[in-house]
Design goal:
24% helix; globular; 11 strands; Spore Coat Polysaccharide Biosynthesis Protein SpsA, Chain A; single chain; alpha/beta
Amino acid sequence: MQVFIGTDHHHRLAAQVLAHSLRSRSSVPIAITLLEQHQLERAGLYWRPRDPLQSTDFSFSRFLVPALLGFRGWGLYLDGDMLCLDDPANLWTLRDDQYAVQCVQHPVHAWGDAKMDGRVQTSYPRKNWSSLMLFNAARCLQLGVDAVNTASGLQLHRFEWLADDSLLGALPKRWNHLVQLDPPPPADQPPALVHWTLGGPWLEGYADAGDSLASLWRHELRQFQGVFV
């Protein structure tokens, strides 16, 4: 299972905790790559200048996943501000060869003007659909390195690079629960994957974002830190 995690240099710990949550719950072999901008730049894979509306290092680099796979097989992309609470193999089994990419197709939300530590919040159709993507790499040839470095943000995030929308598949909402945007989950039915898109417990002022879900993140942090004790 090939997994790629979007990693911002300001919040690398969050991505590391997500990686730990995936490894500790996976029932299948899993290979995790942190998408770090400076490494992609040194490899000659990423060179686009930072966009004024770009809120994280991985806003665009996420679309390099098919190229990193050599346009073969499947890969899972996740934003680094997430926590996995279920076996990721249960998500991996949802791969469907009729699609080029699959994602949770969120409804329109009231996003506000800012997120995380005061960064600009940009609203657009299909927002957050690209925060978790199952890529069928062989069907994503449009995402060559040059295209990822030159296409507009809206072209990429709204999936305008697909030949048509029939190549875009849906995933169950439990695999991308948006904290403080989606309705709180029942206590006995936690989401499979939690996403703090507005700001998570690793940030000042967001310690209790998601209430019990924030407590689960702190527990995962302690488990991750315990690996090095």
